[in-house]
Amino acid sequence: MTSIVFNRRNLLAAGGSVLASGLLLPARAQGVAPTQSMPGGANNYQKGAPIVNRIGKGGFVMSGTVRRAGDGAPLAGQRIQIWAHTIEGREEDERSHGATLTDKNGAFRLDMPQIIPIFGQPHGHLAYDSGEFKTVFLRPVMRSAKDTSLEAHFVLQPA
Amino acid sequence: MRRARVTLIWAALITAIGVPIALAAASPYLQWRDAVYIAAGFAGILALGLLLVQPLLIAGYLPRLLAYRARRVHHWIGGALVLALLVHVAGLWITSPPDMADALLFRSPTPFSPFGVVAMWGVFAVALLALFRRRLGPRTWRVAHLSLAVVIVACSVVHAVLIEGTMETMSKAALCALVVIAAGKVIFDVWARNKKPAR
Asked: B111: distance to nearest CA of chain A, Å?
């Protein structure tokens, strides 16, 4: 399994926001910091991708979790939209887009075609854009183009 | 003997540029890319190859080319370099406008993008200055061109090495190393020659 949760950017962002909230709001210093959108995360996003059992023929697993900022409670039934450049289509092709819902543990998992490098990096795109919480766009990068899975984790804050 | 040497030098140059292009042409990623994206990628690879030819031409390392002719070819290849970069950027723009816009605006998540953009502006700057080089005077022109050449070579190589794309890793590294060695030697020689006290 690949994990992109604790890459440097996330750590810096999380560390920075923990530091900022700790300094600015000492009363709320404890808790899980919200995930920030990644640069380029929203590229080729298409609003309202349908909920699907899998994208295309599958073969590659995109998984992750969705939690609430602050107490870190898992969020069930949250819609996560996923798209990427795969062996079956380009990022902007409608058939490359799909969505899935988190289970009662706040986990999601969607079968999709193998991601291949585009614009110099093998990466996927994920979006939380359903309104209840603030919109977040993620753009996790695979450690190796040969990986057959990728993870991305959301910590959402109220809109 | 001399003929063998001439053949060897040209064969080496063609190999240095041809092998990376041939290996990229065999990349499995190509089957999942459309024609415009493929053209954009190969324009970039070609541009990297041309960066190897430029210093060799101007230093007179390529046999059977008279000095004035080598200089003229250097100018034409400079023009071809501008053209290759325009195809590279335009093709990537057509492939994914938001990703290319991010790169050009220096807000891309990919670490190699700013290097590519800086190298591109470096090439455009040299081409623009070259049009006015007579007005600049030889010293200003030389300093400007050499400084920009350092930026172009360094940024292009970093750009290429960091990209995970159709180029095969070893042949890409070898071509990049040759570009750095060739450009480095020629730039250093020109700089050293002009450093000497009055002739």
From this structure: 10
Q: In angstroms, rounded to a whole number, what is the distance separating the alpha carbons of residues B68 and A42?
A: 52
Number of domains making up chain B: 1
Pairing of strands A149-156, A60-68: parallel
Annotate B19-59 with DSSP letters as a single string: HHHHHHHT-GGGGGS-HHHHHHHHHHHHHHHHHHHHHHHHT
CB-CB under 8 Å, B164 with A117: yes
At residue A17, the pLDDT reads 52
Q: What pLDDT does residue A22 have?
A: 44
pLDDT at B196 over 90: no
Report ipTM for this prediction.
0.86
What pLDDT sits at residue A144?
Answer: 94
pLDDT at B122 over 50: yes
| CATH architecture for the domain at A8-156 | Sandwich (2.60)
Which of B29, B99, B165 lies nearest to residue A43, judging by beta carbons?
B99
**pTM of the predicted protein model:** 0.86
Nearest one of B53, B87, B49 to B171, comparing CA atoms: B49
Query: Which residues in B have their CB inside 8 Å of a CB on A?
Result: 29, 32, 34, 92, 95-96, 98-99, 102, 107-110, 112-113, 162-165
pLDDT of residue A29: 45
Chain A residues with CB under 8 Å of B99 CB are 40, 43-44, 119
Q: Which parts of A69-105 are beta strand (E)? A: 79-84, 97-101
Give the per-residue pLDDT at A135.
97
Q: Domains of chain A: which residue ranges?
A: 8-156
The residue segments making up the domain with residue B117 are 2-195
